[in-house]
User: What shape does this take?
Amino acid sequence: MKARFVALAAILLLVAASTASAGEAPKTVRWKVQSCFPLNMPLTDNAVALWAKKVQEMSGGRMSIELHGDGAIVKGPAIYEAVRDGVLDAGQNTPAWQKGRFPAGDLLYTLPGGVTEYHDYILWVYGGGGWQLAQEMYKGEVVVFPLGLTPPEEIWTNKPIKSLADFKGLKMRNAGLSMELFQKLGASVVLLAGGEVVPSLQRGVIDAAEFSDASMDLALGLPDVAKYVIGPPIHMGSNMFQLLVNPKSYEALPADLKSIVREATISATFEGYARHWAEAIKAFEKIKQKGVTVIKLSPKDQAEARRLAYEILEEKSKKDPFFKKMWESQRDFKKAYQPYHNFTAFDQQPQ
Assistant: This one.
């Protein structure tokens, strides 16, 4: 009798344990993430914030993203180190902040002078090995995913720019390879965080700045402190940003959540790009209504900017082997891509 009682008790305990186990909710993975831009601005809303929303939805709530704006945990330029060291699980990054350590990061944007534009650049990133080269550049310190693409940018000044010669002597805020371009044009350049650009123009610390597209520039307040907006973007067409992920945080994820993190970056980049364009179109009309003078540089100036860009690319390739490797990858991809693109493109755009 005693033996039967012990056996029955053991069975009941096993049933209770299996029932409790079946009823346990899956553990929620919580990531601390920061943008290199303030929250509620186009470059965050259409990139890392959209990605965070998609991750939470696609995972059915199994993954939760605690998203912070620029400066909440670290300043924007320190996001790379914060992700690498595990202070953040992930962060939206601009490679411009790592210019000193990773010179080839300057190639992870569209290039000055229209050498690469957003369409051929996107194709290179996703289909021509660009993503893989970005990961190789960071040497395993972080896991990198392309995330966030802006419409074409513009240049803001408080002095009229009728030709490239007018940039000589200006103090400018720049990032990426545009710093080298404007140095060749005789400008004095400085890299400033987004929040410093408007106050610096307002106080006359700088005479000109390039930052982002019309929607971001409007949100930042550039039309309120600059008299002229200059196009086309001879300095840099479109910006592409990154999601940097701490390797330990990423490897701790099950396979399906790894896939969700990855696929959400692709989905957010392209959906965000379309949304961003719609916002930029409206923003440009508002900019013109503020009385800002719109100036477009001549085809001759555009061609000269392109010539200088090629000169810069060759100079930097001689100094850094990995820069050379990445630039040759872009150059060869565009060389292969251009004939078919030209064949399928209409010679004149519809009005």
The domain at 27-150+238-281 is CATH 3.40.190.170 (D-Maltodextrin-Binding Protein; domain 2).
